[in-house]
Amino acid sequence: xxxxxxxxxxxxxxxxxxxxxxxxxxxxxxxxxxxxxxxxxxxxxxxxxxxxxxxxxxxxxxxxxxxxxxxxxxxxxxxxxxxxxxxxxxxxxxxxxxxxxxxxxxxxxxxxxxxxxxxxxxxxxxxxxxxxxxxxxxxxxxxxxxxxxxxxxxxxxxxxxxxxxxxxxxxxxxxxxxxxxxxxxxxxxxxxxxxxxxxxxxxxxxxxxxxxxxxxxxxxxxxxxxxxxxxxxxxxxxxxxxxxxxxxxxxxxxxxxxxxxxxxxxxxxxxxxxxxxxxxxxxxxxxxxxxxxxxxxxxxxxxxx
Amino acid sequence: xxxxxxxxxxxxxxxxxxxxxxxxxxxxxxxxxxxxxxxxxxxxxxxxxxxxxxxxxxxxxxxxxxxxxxxxxxxxxxxxxxxxxxxxxxxxxxxxxxxxxxxxxxxxxxxxxxxxxxxxxxxxxxxxxxxxxxxxxxxxxxxxxxxxxxxxxxxxxxxxxxxxxxxxxxxxxxxxxxxxxxxxxxxxxxxxxxxxxxxxxxxxxxxxxxxxxxxxxxxxxxxxxxxxxxxxxxxxxxxxxxxxxxxxxxxxxxxxxxxxxxxxxxxxxxxxxxxxxxxxxxxxxxxxxxxxxxxxxxxxxxxxxxxxxxxxxxxxxxxxxxxxxxxxxxxxxx
Lengths: 305, 334
What we know:
The structure holds two protein chains of two kinds. Chain A is mostly helical. Helix content of chain A is 53%, strand content 1%.
Protein backbone atom coordinates (compact mmCIF):
# COMPACT_ATOMS: atom_id res chain seq x y z
CA UNK A 1 0.00 0.00 0.00
CA UNK A 2 1.41 3.41 -0.95
CA UNK A 3 1.40 6.47 1.30
CA UNK A 4 -1.41 7.96 -0.74
CA UNK A 5 -3.52 4.82 -0.44
CA UNK A 6 -2.80 4.60 3.29
CA UNK A 7 -3.82 8.23 3.87
CA UNK A 8 -6.91 7.78 1.80
CA UNK A 9 -7.91 4.67 3.74
CA UNK A 10 -7.40 6.53 7.02
CA UNK A 11 -9.54 9.47 5.82
CA UNK A 12 -12.30 7.17 4.63
CA UNK A 13 -12.27 5.28 7.91
CA UNK A 14 -12.40 8.54 9.83
CA UNK A 15 -15.31 9.68 7.70
CA UNK A 16 -17.19 6.49 8.51
CA UNK A 17 -16.43 6.87 12.20
CA UNK A 18 -17.95 10.35 12.39
CA UNK A 19 -21.17 9.65 10.52
CA UNK A 20 -23.99 10.90 12.73
CA UNK A 21 -26.85 8.66 13.85
CA UNK A 22 -29.21 10.43 11.42
CA UNK A 23 -27.04 9.15 8.56
CA UNK A 24 -25.58 12.51 7.61
CA UNK A 25 -22.39 14.38 8.37
CA UNK A 26 -21.81 17.75 9.99
CA UNK A 27 -19.33 20.26 8.64
CA UNK A 28 -17.24 20.44 11.82
CA UNK A 29 -15.90 17.26 13.29
CA UNK A 30 -17.60 16.69 16.61
CA UNK A 31 -20.64 18.83 15.77
CA UNK A 32 -24.07 17.23 15.91
CA UNK A 33 -25.82 19.10 13.13
CA UNK A 34 -25.96 17.27 9.81
CA UNK A 35 -25.64 19.35 6.66
CA UNK A 36 -26.32 18.63 3.01
CA UNK A 37 -22.93 19.46 1.48
CA UNK A 38 -20.70 17.29 3.70
CA UNK A 39 -23.23 14.46 3.49
CA UNK A 40 -23.41 14.53 -0.30
CA UNK A 41 -19.61 14.73 -0.57
CA UNK A 42 -19.20 11.86 1.88
CA UNK A 43 -21.67 9.75 -0.07
CA UNK A 44 -19.61 10.39 -3.20
CA UNK A 45 -16.38 9.59 -1.36
CA UNK A 46 -17.32 6.35 0.37
CA UNK A 47 -16.32 3.24 -1.57
CA UNK A 48 -19.09 0.95 -2.75
CA UNK A 49 -18.12 -1.79 -0.29
CA UNK A 50 -19.25 0.24 2.75
CA UNK A 51 -22.86 -0.23 1.89
CA UNK A 52 -24.32 0.36 5.35
CA UNK A 53 -22.85 3.87 5.66
CA UNK A 54 -23.81 4.74 2.11
CA UNK A 55 -27.38 3.54 2.52
CA UNK A 56 -27.75 5.56 5.74
CA UNK A 57 -26.50 8.62 3.88
CA UNK A 58 -28.91 7.99 1.01
CA UNK A 59 -31.81 7.66 3.46
CA UNK A 60 -30.77 10.87 5.20
CA UNK A 61 -30.73 12.83 1.93
CA UNK A 62 -34.05 11.40 0.80
CA UNK A 63 -35.61 12.18 4.17
CA UNK A 64 -34.40 15.78 4.18
CA UNK A 65 -35.48 16.66 0.64
CA UNK A 66 -37.88 19.58 0.66
CA UNK A 67 -41.41 19.19 -0.66
CA UNK A 68 -40.54 21.31 -3.68
CA UNK A 69 -37.72 18.90 -4.61
CA UNK A 70 -34.82 21.02 -3.39
CA UNK A 71 -32.50 20.39 -0.47
CA UNK A 72 -32.02 22.73 2.46
CA UNK A 73 -28.49 23.64 3.54
CA UNK A 74 -29.22 21.58 6.67
CA UNK A 75 -32.33 20.05 8.26
CA UNK A 76 -34.50 22.75 9.78
CA UNK A 77 -33.44 25.33 7.24
CA UNK A 78 -36.32 26.81 5.25
CA UNK A 79 -37.99 24.77 2.59
CA UNK A 80 -37.31 26.94 -0.44
CA UNK A 81 -34.01 25.29 -1.27
CA UNK A 82 -30.30 25.94 -1.26
CA UNK A 83 -27.36 26.02 -3.65
CA UNK A 84 -26.45 22.49 -2.57
CA UNK A 85 -29.46 20.91 -4.31
CA UNK A 86 -27.44 20.08 -7.44
CA UNK A 87 -24.74 18.38 -5.38
CA UNK A 88 -27.28 16.32 -3.40
CA UNK A 89 -28.98 15.19 -6.60
CA UNK A 90 -25.63 14.35 -8.21
CA UNK A 91 -24.59 12.27 -5.20
CA UNK A 92 -27.90 10.42 -5.07
CA UNK A 93 -28.05 9.63 -8.77
CA UNK A 94 -24.44 8.41 -8.62
CA UNK A 95 -25.60 6.14 -5.80
CA UNK A 96 -28.32 4.75 -8.04
CA UNK A 97 -31.31 6.66 -6.68
CA UNK A 98 -33.92 7.47 -9.29
CA UNK A 99 -37.71 7.82 -9.32
CA UNK A 100 -39.67 10.57 -7.61
CA UNK A 101 -36.75 11.89 -5.55
CA UNK A 102 -34.75 12.62 -8.68
CA UNK A 103 -37.75 13.81 -10.70
CA UNK A 104 -38.74 16.35 -8.03
CA UNK A 105 -35.17 17.55 -7.62
CA UNK A 106 -34.80 17.90 -11.37
CA UNK A 107 -38.02 19.91 -11.49
CA UNK A 108 -36.69 22.30 -8.87
CA UNK A 109 -33.35 22.69 -10.62
CA UNK A 110 -35.04 23.46 -13.91
CA UNK A 111 -37.21 26.06 -12.22
CA UNK A 112 -34.62 27.73 -9.96
CA UNK A 113 -32.58 30.55 -11.45
CA UNK A 114 -30.55 33.55 -10.46
CA UNK A 115 -32.51 36.74 -9.90
CA UNK A 116 -30.74 38.43 -12.82
CA UNK A 117 -32.92 36.34 -15.13
CA UNK A 118 -36.00 38.33 -14.05
CA UNK A 119 -36.85 41.05 -16.60
CA UNK A 120 -36.90 43.79 -13.99
CA UNK A 121 -33.43 43.03 -12.62
CA UNK A 122 -32.13 42.35 -16.09
CA UNK A 123 -33.23 45.85 -17.03
CA UNK A 124 -31.65 47.29 -13.86
CA UNK A 125 -28.32 45.54 -14.50
CA UNK A 126 -28.33 46.74 -18.09
CA UNK A 127 -29.14 50.37 -17.30
CA UNK A 128 -28.44 51.70 -13.81
CA UNK A 129 -26.35 49.06 -12.04
CA UNK A 130 -23.28 48.52 -14.21
CA UNK A 131 -20.48 48.22 -11.67
CA UNK A 132 -20.27 44.46 -12.00
CA UNK A 133 -19.49 43.40 -15.56
CA UNK A 134 -21.78 40.57 -16.58
CA UNK A 135 -24.51 39.68 -19.03
CA UNK A 136 -27.77 39.09 -17.11
CA UNK A 137 -29.17 37.09 -20.05
CA UNK A 138 -26.74 34.39 -19.01
CA UNK A 139 -27.87 32.96 -15.72
CA UNK A 140 -27.27 29.98 -13.50
CA UNK A 141 -28.23 29.09 -9.93
CA UNK A 142 -28.08 31.11 -6.70
CA UNK A 143 -26.99 30.12 -3.19
CA UNK A 144 -30.43 31.10 -1.91
CA UNK A 145 -33.67 31.80 -3.76
CA UNK A 146 -34.09 35.51 -4.39
CA UNK A 147 -30.41 36.20 -5.09
CA UNK A 148 -28.25 36.18 -8.22
CA UNK A 149 -26.26 33.31 -9.74
CA UNK A 150 -22.88 32.24 -8.35
CA UNK A 151 -20.22 29.92 -9.64
CA UNK A 152 -20.33 27.10 -7.06
CA UNK A 153 -24.11 26.46 -6.99
CA UNK A 154 -24.18 26.77 -10.78
CA UNK A 155 -21.39 24.22 -11.09
CA UNK A 156 -23.08 21.79 -8.68
CA UNK A 157 -26.33 22.16 -10.62
CA UNK A 158 -24.64 21.63 -13.97
CA UNK A 159 -22.97 18.46 -12.72
CA UNK A 160 -26.38 17.09 -11.72
CA UNK A 161 -28.09 18.11 -14.95
CA UNK A 162 -25.32 16.73 -17.16
CA UNK A 163 -25.53 13.43 -15.31
CA UNK A 164 -29.28 13.28 -15.98
CA UNK A 165 -29.03 14.62 -19.51
CA UNK A 166 -27.19 11.44 -20.47
CA UNK A 167 -30.43 9.55 -19.74
CA UNK A 168 -33.00 12.10 -20.88
CA UNK A 169 -33.36 14.16 -24.02
CA UNK A 170 -35.37 16.98 -22.43
CA UNK A 171 -35.16 20.31 -24.21
CA UNK A 172 -35.47 22.12 -20.91
CA UNK A 173 -32.47 20.28 -19.46
CA UNK A 174 -30.46 21.19 -22.54
CA UNK A 175 -31.60 24.80 -22.31
CA UNK A 176 -30.60 25.14 -18.64
CA UNK A 177 -27.25 23.44 -19.28
CA UNK A 178 -26.58 25.82 -22.14
CA UNK A 179 -27.53 28.88 -20.08
CA UNK A 180 -25.42 27.68 -17.14
CA UNK A 181 -22.41 27.09 -19.37
CA UNK A 182 -22.84 30.54 -20.89
CA UNK A 183 -23.10 32.05 -17.43
CA UNK A 184 -19.83 30.41 -16.33
CA UNK A 185 -17.98 31.64 -19.40
CA UNK A 186 -19.50 35.10 -18.97
CA UNK A 187 -18.28 35.38 -15.36
CA UNK A 188 -14.77 34.04 -15.96
CA UNK A 189 -11.86 36.18 -14.75
CA UNK A 190 -10.02 37.96 -17.59
CA UNK A 191 -6.84 35.97 -16.89
CA UNK A 192 -8.76 32.68 -16.61
CA UNK A 193 -10.24 30.98 -13.59
CA UNK A 194 -13.28 31.87 -11.57
CA UNK A 195 -13.87 34.00 -8.52
CA UNK A 196 -17.07 33.57 -6.45
CA UNK A 197 -19.35 34.90 -9.13
CA UNK A 198 -17.94 37.71 -11.22
CA UNK A 199 -14.80 38.44 -13.17
CA UNK A 200 -14.66 42.22 -13.11
CA UNK A 201 -16.04 44.63 -10.48
CA UNK A 202 -15.61 48.39 -10.68
CA UNK A 203 -13.31 47.87 -13.63
CA UNK A 204 -10.90 45.69 -11.65
CA UNK A 205 -10.31 42.06 -12.68
CA UNK A 206 -10.90 39.71 -9.76
CA UNK A 207 -8.46 37.04 -8.71
CA UNK A 208 -9.57 33.42 -9.32
CA UNK A 209 -10.40 31.09 -6.45
CA UNK A 210 -8.93 27.61 -6.90
CA UNK A 211 -11.94 25.66 -5.61
CA UNK A 212 -14.46 27.66 -7.65
CA UNK A 213 -12.23 27.36 -10.72
CA UNK A 214 -11.89 23.62 -10.30
CA UNK A 215 -15.63 23.13 -9.81
CA UNK A 216 -16.45 25.28 -12.83
CA UNK A 217 -14.04 23.25 -14.96
CA UNK A 218 -15.63 20.01 -13.74
CA UNK A 219 -19.04 21.41 -14.67
CA UNK A 220 -17.78 22.43 -18.11
CA UNK A 221 -16.28 19.05 -18.85
CA UNK A 222 -17.47 17.83 -22.22
CA UNK A 223 -17.69 21.35 -23.62
CA UNK A 224 -15.25 22.26 -26.40
CA UNK A 225 -11.99 23.65 -25.02
CA UNK A 226 -11.54 27.39 -25.22
CA UNK A 227 -8.48 29.54 -24.66
CA UNK A 228 -9.97 30.62 -21.35
CA UNK A 229 -10.67 27.09 -20.12
CA UNK A 230 -7.10 26.09 -21.00
CA UNK A 231 -5.75 29.18 -19.25
CA UNK A 232 -7.89 28.30 -16.22
CA UNK A 233 -6.40 24.80 -16.11
CA UNK A 234 -2.90 26.21 -16.50
CA UNK A 235 -3.58 28.66 -13.69
CA UNK A 236 -4.72 25.79 -11.45
CA UNK A 237 -1.57 23.82 -12.21
CA UNK A 238 0.61 26.81 -11.33
CA UNK A 239 -1.39 27.47 -8.18
CA UNK A 240 -0.81 23.95 -6.85
CA UNK A 241 2.95 24.45 -6.81
CA UNK A 242 2.83 26.57 -3.66
CA UNK A 243 -0.55 25.58 -2.23
CA UNK A 244 -1.11 23.95 1.14
CA UNK A 245 -4.84 24.36 1.80
CA UNK A 246 -6.39 20.87 1.57
CA UNK A 247 -9.93 21.85 0.47
CA UNK A 248 -8.77 23.81 -2.55
CA UNK A 249 -5.95 21.42 -3.33
CA UNK A 250 -8.41 18.51 -3.47
CA UNK A 251 -10.75 20.25 -5.89
CA UNK A 252 -7.81 21.16 -8.07
CA UNK A 253 -6.65 17.53 -8.11
CA UNK A 254 -10.17 16.40 -9.09
CA UNK A 255 -10.39 18.95 -11.91
CA UNK A 256 -6.91 18.52 -13.33
CA UNK A 257 -7.31 14.74 -13.23
CA UNK A 258 -10.63 14.98 -15.05
CA UNK A 259 -8.88 16.94 -17.80
CA UNK A 260 -6.12 14.40 -18.10
CA UNK A 261 -3.35 16.40 -16.46
CA UNK A 262 -0.99 14.44 -14.26
CA UNK A 263 -1.75 14.65 -10.57
CA UNK A 264 0.70 12.19 -8.98
CA UNK A 265 3.02 14.80 -7.49
CA UNK A 266 0.15 16.87 -6.13
CA UNK A 267 -1.64 13.91 -4.58
CA UNK A 268 1.62 12.85 -2.91
CA UNK A 269 1.96 16.31 -1.42
CA UNK A 270 -1.72 16.42 -0.45
CA UNK A 271 -1.33 13.11 1.37
CA UNK A 272 1.64 14.53 3.28
CA UNK A 273 -0.25 17.69 4.26
CA UNK A 274 -3.26 15.73 5.45
CA UNK A 275 -1.07 13.24 7.30
CA UNK A 276 0.64 16.08 9.18
CA UNK A 277 -2.57 17.94 9.98
CA UNK A 278 -5.79 15.97 9.49
CA UNK A 279 -8.76 18.11 8.40
CA UNK A 280 -11.16 19.12 11.14
CA UNK A 281 -14.25 19.23 8.99
CA UNK A 282 -16.09 16.44 7.26
CA UNK A 283 -16.57 18.18 3.92
CA UNK A 284 -12.81 18.52 3.57
CA UNK A 285 -12.28 14.96 4.78
CA UNK A 286 -14.64 13.76 2.05
CA UNK A 287 -12.94 15.69 -0.77
CA UNK A 288 -9.56 14.46 0.47
CA UNK A 289 -10.85 10.89 0.10
CA UNK A 290 -12.14 11.72 -3.37
CA UNK A 291 -8.93 13.42 -4.47
CA UNK A 292 -6.64 10.70 -3.19
CA UNK A 293 -8.74 8.06 -4.97
CA UNK A 294 -8.62 9.63 -8.39
CA UNK A 295 -6.17 8.97 -11.17
CA UNK A 296 -6.39 8.97 -14.95
CA UNK A 297 -9.83 10.55 -14.94
CA UNK A 298 -11.37 7.86 -12.77
CA UNK A 299 -12.89 10.03 -10.04
CA UNK A 300 -16.63 10.43 -9.51
CA UNK A 301 -16.36 13.78 -11.30
CA UNK A 302 -14.02 12.59 -13.97
CA UNK A 303 -15.27 9.38 -15.47
CA UNK A 304 -17.70 9.52 -18.37
CA UNK A 305 -20.99 7.85 -17.60
CA UNK B 1 -69.21 75.94 5.49
CA UNK B 2 -71.67 73.11 5.72
CA UNK B 3 -70.28 69.70 6.65
CA UNK B 4 -72.52 66.76 5.95
CA UNK B 5 -72.30 63.35 7.53
CA UNK B 6 -70.68 61.78 4.48
CA UNK B 7 -67.85 64.36 4.50
CA UNK B 8 -67.39 63.94 8.23
CA UNK B 9 -67.22 60.16 7.94
CA UNK B 10 -64.73 60.39 5.06
CA UNK B 11 -62.56 62.80 7.01
CA UNK B 12 -62.65 60.57 10.09
CA UNK B 13 -61.67 57.52 8.05
CA UNK B 14 -58.88 59.49 6.40
CA UNK B 15 -57.59 60.63 9.77
CA UNK B 16 -57.73 57.11 11.16
CA UNK B 17 -55.84 55.70 8.17
CA UNK B 18 -53.27 58.45 8.47
CA UNK B 19 -52.84 57.71 12.15
CA UNK B 20 -52.31 54.00 11.46
CA UNK B 21 -49.72 54.75 8.75
CA UNK B 22 -47.95 57.32 10.96
CA UNK B 23 -47.93 54.93 13.92
CA UNK B 24 -46.54 52.13 11.77
CA UNK B 25 -43.69 54.20 10.37
CA UNK B 26 -42.89 56.06 13.58
CA UNK B 27 -42.55 52.86 15.61
CA UNK B 28 -38.95 52.00 16.35
CA UNK B 29 -37.61 49.11 14.32
CA UNK B 30 -35.56 47.79 17.23
CA UNK B 31 -36.57 45.81 20.28
CA UNK B 32 -33.42 46.36 22.28
CA UNK B 33 -31.40 49.41 23.31
CA UNK B 34 -27.67 48.94 23.80
CA UNK B 35 -26.74 52.60 23.75
CA UNK B 36 -25.10 53.86 26.92
CA UNK B 37 -25.25 57.45 28.17
CA UNK B 38 -21.60 57.89 27.26
CA UNK B 39 -19.04 55.86 25.36
CA UNK B 40 -15.28 55.60 25.54
CA UNK B 41 -12.93 55.51 22.57
CA UNK B 42 -9.14 55.38 22.66
CA UNK B 43 -7.02 56.21 19.65
CA UNK B 44 -3.57 54.65 19.97
CA UNK B 45 -0.60 55.43 17.82
CA UNK B 46 1.12 52.39 16.26
CA UNK B 47 3.78 52.87 13.65
CA UNK B 48 3.82 49.35 12.24
CA UNK B 49 2.79 45.74 12.68
CA UNK B 50 5.36 44.46 15.12
CA UNK B 51 5.84 42.43 18.26
CA UNK B 52 5.36 45.60 20.36
CA UNK B 53 1.65 45.68 19.54
CA UNK B 54 0.84 43.56 22.58
CA UNK B 55 2.29 46.20 24.89
CA UNK B 56 0.46 48.99 23.08
CA UNK B 57 -2.89 47.21 23.22
CA UNK B 58 -2.32 46.26 26.85
CA UNK B 59 -1.81 49.91 27.78
CA UNK B 60 -4.88 50.86 25.76
CA UNK B 61 -7.06 48.20 27.35
CA UNK B 62 -6.06 49.38 30.81
CA UNK B 63 -7.83 52.67 30.07
CA UNK B 64 -11.16 50.79 29.95
CA UNK B 65 -11.04 48.73 33.17
CA UNK B 66 -12.61 45.72 31.43
CA UNK B 67 -13.59 42.75 33.54
CA UNK B 68 -13.44 39.61 31.40
CA UNK B 69 -12.32 37.28 34.18
CA UNK B 70 -13.84 33.83 33.67
CA UNK B 71 -15.50 34.85 30.42
CA UNK B 72 -15.29 33.22 27.01
CA UNK B 73 -13.93 35.84 24.63
CA UNK B 74 -14.46 35.72 20.88
CA UNK B 75 -12.19 37.80 18.67
CA UNK B 76 -13.84 38.48 15.32
CA UNK B 77 -11.25 39.77 12.83
CA UNK B 78 -12.07 40.77 9.27
CA UNK B 79 -10.83 38.00 6.96
CA UNK B 80 -12.44 38.18 3.55
CA UNK B 81 -10.03 36.80 1.01
CA UNK B 82 -6.32 36.83 0.33
CA UNK B 83 -4.84 38.83 -2.54
CA UNK B 84 -1.06 39.31 -2.28
CA UNK B 85 -0.19 42.92 -1.58
CA UNK B 86 -3.74 44.06 -0.76
CA UNK B 87 -4.53 45.24 2.78
CA UNK B 88 -7.75 43.27 3.03
CA UNK B 89 -7.59 41.51 6.36
CA UNK B 90 -7.09 42.52 9.98
CA UNK B 91 -3.39 41.94 10.54
CA UNK B 92 -2.52 38.67 12.27
CA UNK B 93 -0.09 40.34 14.69
CA UNK B 94 -2.82 42.65 15.97
CA UNK B 95 -5.20 39.75 16.51
CA UNK B 96 -2.51 37.66 18.18
CA UNK B 97 -1.60 40.57 20.45
CA UNK B 98 -5.24 41.06 21.42
CA UNK B 99 -5.58 37.36 22.20
CA UNK B 100 -2.59 37.49 24.56
CA UNK B 101 -3.96 40.60 26.28
CA UNK B 102 -7.35 39.03 26.96
CA UNK B 103 -5.65 35.93 28.29
CA UNK B 104 -3.70 38.20 30.64
CA UNK B 105 -6.95 39.85 31.68
CA UNK B 106 -8.18 36.48 32.93
CA UNK B 107 -10.53 35.35 30.17
CA UNK B 108 -11.59 31.72 30.59
CA UNK B 109 -11.02 31.16 26.87
CA UNK B 110 -10.01 33.23 23.87
CA UNK B 111 -11.18 32.02 20.47
CA UNK B 112 -10.88 33.56 17.04
CA UNK B 113 -13.91 33.14 14.84
CA UNK B 114 -14.61 34.28 11.31
CA UNK B 115 -16.68 33.25 8.31
CA UNK B 116 -14.95 34.80 5.29
CA UNK B 117 -17.52 36.37 3.03
CA UNK B 118 -15.83 35.78 -0.26
CA UNK B 119 -13.39 32.89 -0.16
CA UNK B 120 -14.95 29.47 0.60
CA UNK B 121 -11.65 27.97 1.68
CA UNK B 122 -11.14 29.58 5.06
CA UNK B 123 -7.94 27.64 5.69
CA UNK B 124 -6.54 29.07 2.45
CA UNK B 125 -7.07 32.60 3.79
CA UNK B 126 -5.57 31.61 7.14
CA UNK B 127 -2.50 29.98 5.67
CA UNK B 128 -1.72 32.54 2.98
CA UNK B 129 -2.19 35.51 5.32
CA UNK B 130 0.11 33.96 7.92
CA UNK B 131 -2.64 33.33 10.47
CA UNK B 132 -2.33 29.55 10.46
CA UNK B 133 1.28 29.59 11.68
CA UNK B 134 0.63 32.40 14.14
CA UNK B 135 -2.38 30.69 15.70
CA UNK B 136 -0.56 27.38 15.93
CA UNK B 137 2.45 28.99 17.63
CA UNK B 138 0.28 30.73 20.21
CA UNK B 139 -2.19 27.85 20.51
CA UNK B 140 -5.16 30.07 19.80
CA UNK B 141 -8.23 28.12 18.65
CA UNK B 142 -9.95 29.21 15.45
CA UNK B 143 -13.54 28.45 14.46
CA UNK B 144 -14.67 28.70 10.85
CA UNK B 145 -18.03 30.37 11.41
CA UNK B 146 -19.08 29.49 7.86
CA UNK B 147 -19.19 25.83 8.90
CA UNK B 148 -20.18 25.98 12.55
CA UNK B 149 -23.30 24.46 14.13
CA UNK B 150 -26.20 26.85 13.63
CA UNK B 151 -29.00 28.05 15.88
CA UNK B 152 -32.13 29.82 14.64
CA UNK B 153 -32.14 33.17 16.39
CA UNK B 154 -34.88 35.83 16.41
CA UNK B 155 -33.74 39.29 15.38
CA UNK B 156 -33.82 42.15 17.86
CA UNK B 157 -34.43 44.66 15.09
CA UNK B 158 -36.51 44.63 11.96
CA UNK B 159 -34.79 46.71 9.32
CA UNK B 160 -34.60 43.88 6.75
CA UNK B 161 -37.84 42.07 7.53
CA UNK B 162 -35.94 38.79 7.86
CA UNK B 163 -37.36 38.02 11.34
CA UNK B 164 -34.60 35.54 12.23
CA UNK B 165 -31.07 34.53 11.32
CA UNK B 166 -29.17 31.28 11.65
CA UNK B 167 -26.18 32.09 13.83
CA UNK B 168 -23.11 30.02 14.76
CA UNK B 169 -23.24 28.36 18.16
CA UNK B 170 -19.72 29.61 18.89
CA UNK B 171 -20.93 33.21 18.58
CA UNK B 172 -24.05 32.70 20.66
CA UNK B 173 -22.12 30.95 23.43
CA UNK B 174 -19.45 33.65 23.72
CA UNK B 175 -19.68 35.96 26.73
CA UNK B 176 -17.63 38.79 25.27
CA UNK B 177 -17.45 39.54 21.54
CA UNK B 178 -14.74 41.79 20.18
CA UNK B 179 -15.09 43.09 16.66
CA UNK B 180 -11.67 43.62 15.08
CA UNK B 181 -12.24 45.28 11.71
CA UNK B 182 -9.74 46.42 9.15
CA UNK B 183 -10.54 50.07 8.53
CA UNK B 184 -11.53 50.21 4.86
CA UNK B 185 -13.73 51.92 2.36
CA UNK B 186 -16.33 49.71 0.71
CA UNK B 187 -17.73 50.08 -2.78
CA UNK B 188 -21.27 49.04 -1.76
CA UNK B 189 -21.60 50.53 1.72
CA UNK B 190 -19.09 53.40 1.84
CA UNK B 191 -17.14 52.03 4.79
CA UNK B 192 -16.56 48.68 6.44
CA UNK B 193 -15.78 49.01 10.13
CA UNK B 194 -16.69 47.17 13.34
CA UNK B 195 -20.41 46.92 12.57
CA UNK B 196 -20.11 45.83 8.94
CA UNK B 197 -17.44 43.37 10.13
CA UNK B 198 -20.25 41.39 11.80
CA UNK B 199 -21.42 40.14 8.40
CA UNK B 200 -18.70 37.59 9.03
CA UNK B 201 -20.64 35.91 11.84
CA UNK B 202 -23.28 34.80 9.37
CA UNK B 203 -22.57 31.30 8.08
CA UNK B 204 -21.78 30.84 4.40
CA UNK B 205 -23.16 27.32 4.66
CA UNK B 206 -26.58 28.93 4.96
CA UNK B 207 -26.20 32.33 3.28
CA UNK B 208 -23.64 31.53 0.60
CA UNK B 209 -20.32 33.00 -0.53
CA UNK B 210 -20.72 35.94 -0.65
CA UNK B 211 -23.65 36.38 1.72
CA UNK B 212 -25.59 37.85 -1.16
CA UNK B 213 -28.98 37.82 0.57
CA UNK B 214 -27.72 40.58 2.89
CA UNK B 215 -27.02 42.79 -0.11
CA UNK B 216 -30.50 42.21 -1.47
CA UNK B 217 -32.07 42.94 1.93
CA UNK B 218 -30.03 46.16 2.17
CA UNK B 219 -26.49 46.34 3.51
CA UNK B 220 -27.19 49.04 6.09
CA UNK B 221 -30.42 47.33 7.16
CA UNK B 222 -28.63 44.00 7.51
CA UNK B 223 -25.85 45.59 9.57
CA UNK B 224 -28.43 47.05 11.95
CA UNK B 225 -30.32 43.76 12.34
CA UNK B 226 -27.15 41.75 12.91
CA UNK B 227 -25.65 44.21 15.41
CA UNK B 228 -28.94 44.43 17.31
CA UNK B 229 -28.95 40.64 17.62
CA UNK B 230 -25.26 39.90 18.16
CA UNK B 231 -23.84 42.34 20.70
CA UNK B 232 -20.39 43.81 20.11
CA UNK B 233 -18.90 44.26 23.57
CA UNK B 234 -15.65 45.84 22.48
CA UNK B 235 -13.86 47.03 19.36
CA UNK B 236 -10.19 46.90 18.36
CA UNK B 237 -9.93 48.40 14.89
CA UNK B 238 -6.88 47.95 12.69
CA UNK B 239 -6.13 51.38 11.22
CA UNK B 240 -2.36 50.94 11.16
CA UNK B 241 -2.52 50.40 7.42
CA UNK B 242 -6.05 50.96 6.14
CA UNK B 243 -7.60 50.69 2.70
CA UNK B 244 -9.07 53.46 0.56
CA UNK B 245 -10.65 53.54 -2.87
CA UNK B 246 -12.23 50.40 -4.30
CA UNK B 247 -12.46 48.47 -1.03
CA UNK B 248 -13.01 46.01 0.51
CA UNK B 249 -10.73 43.93 -1.74
CA UNK B 250 -9.08 46.04 -4.39
CA UNK B 251 -8.44 49.41 -2.80
CA UNK B 252 -5.06 51.00 -2.06
CA UNK B 253 -3.15 50.90 1.20
CA UNK B 254 -3.55 54.04 3.31
CA UNK B 255 -1.40 54.15 6.45
CA UNK B 256 -3.13 55.82 9.40
CA UNK B 257 -0.78 54.42 12.06
CA UNK B 258 -3.61 54.10 14.55
CA UNK B 259 -5.47 51.45 16.52
CA UNK B 260 -8.95 52.38 17.72
CA UNK B 261 -10.28 50.80 20.90
CA UNK B 262 -13.85 51.37 22.06
CA UNK B 263 -16.55 50.03 24.34
CA UNK B 264 -19.23 50.95 21.78
CA UNK B 265 -19.28 49.91 18.10
CA UNK B 266 -21.12 53.00 16.90
CA UNK B 267 -18.69 55.29 18.71
CA UNK B 268 -15.76 53.26 17.36
CA UNK B 269 -17.02 53.47 13.80
CA UNK B 270 -17.89 57.15 14.08
CA UNK B 271 -14.34 57.80 15.28
CA UNK B 272 -12.85 55.70 12.47
CA UNK B 273 -15.04 57.55 9.97
CA UNK B 274 -13.70 60.89 11.25
CA UNK B 275 -10.15 59.55 11.00
CA UNK B 276 -10.93 58.72 7.37
CA UNK B 277 -12.24 62.25 6.76
CA UNK B 278 -15.90 61.16 6.63
CA UNK B 279 -18.96 62.53 8.38
CA UNK B 280 -20.43 59.68 10.48
CA UNK B 281 -23.88 61.21 10.29
CA UNK B 282 -23.88 60.56 6.55
CA UNK B 283 -23.34 56.83 7.05
CA UNK B 284 -26.81 55.31 7.23
CA UNK B 285 -26.11 52.48 9.64
CA UNK B 286 -24.26 54.81 12.03
CA UNK B 287 -27.02 57.39 12.01
CA UNK B 288 -29.71 54.74 12.62
CA UNK B 289 -27.49 52.75 14.97
CA UNK B 290 -27.02 55.93 16.97
CA UNK B 291 -30.62 55.61 18.10
CA UNK B 292 -30.14 52.32 19.91
CA UNK B 293 -26.76 50.64 19.38
CA UNK B 294 -24.37 53.34 20.53
CA UNK B 295 -23.26 56.93 20.27
CA UNK B 296 -21.99 58.58 17.11
CA UNK B 297 -22.17 62.15 18.38
CA UNK B 298 -18.75 63.43 19.47
CA UNK B 299 -20.42 65.06 22.50
CA UNK B 300 -21.30 61.64 23.91
CA UNK B 301 -17.86 60.12 23.38
CA UNK B 302 -15.05 60.34 25.92
CA UNK B 303 -11.93 60.48 23.84
CA UNK B 304 -9.07 58.65 25.59
CA UNK B 305 -5.40 58.66 24.57
CA UNK B 306 -4.91 60.65 21.35
CA UNK B 307 -7.35 63.24 19.98
CA UNK B 308 -9.00 62.72 16.60
CA UNK B 309 -6.81 63.97 13.81
CA UNK B 310 -8.73 64.65 10.63
CA UNK B 311 -6.56 63.81 7.60
CA UNK B 312 -5.48 66.51 5.17
CA UNK B 313 -7.16 64.59 2.40
CA UNK B 314 -10.10 62.31 3.02
CA UNK B 315 -9.97 58.65 2.11
CA UNK B 316 -10.59 58.07 -1.57
CA UNK B 317 -13.86 56.31 -2.35
CA UNK B 318 -15.72 55.18 -5.43
CA UNK B 319 -17.65 58.19 -6.82
CA UNK B 320 -20.98 57.13 -5.28
CA UNK B 321 -19.58 57.82 -1.80
CA UNK B 322 -17.83 61.15 -2.29
CA UNK B 323 -20.71 62.67 -0.33
CA UNK B 324 -19.40 61.00 2.85
CA UNK B 325 -16.53 63.48 3.12
CA UNK B 326 -16.51 65.92 6.00
CA UNK B 327 -17.40 69.35 4.70
CA UNK B 328 -14.76 71.17 6.73
CA UNK B 329 -11.09 70.21 6.71
CA UNK B 330 -9.84 73.25 8.56
CA UNK B 331 -8.29 72.96 11.97
CA UNK B 332 -6.94 69.79 13.40
CA UNK B 333 -5.35 68.40 10.24
CA UNK B 334 -2.17 66.34 10.08
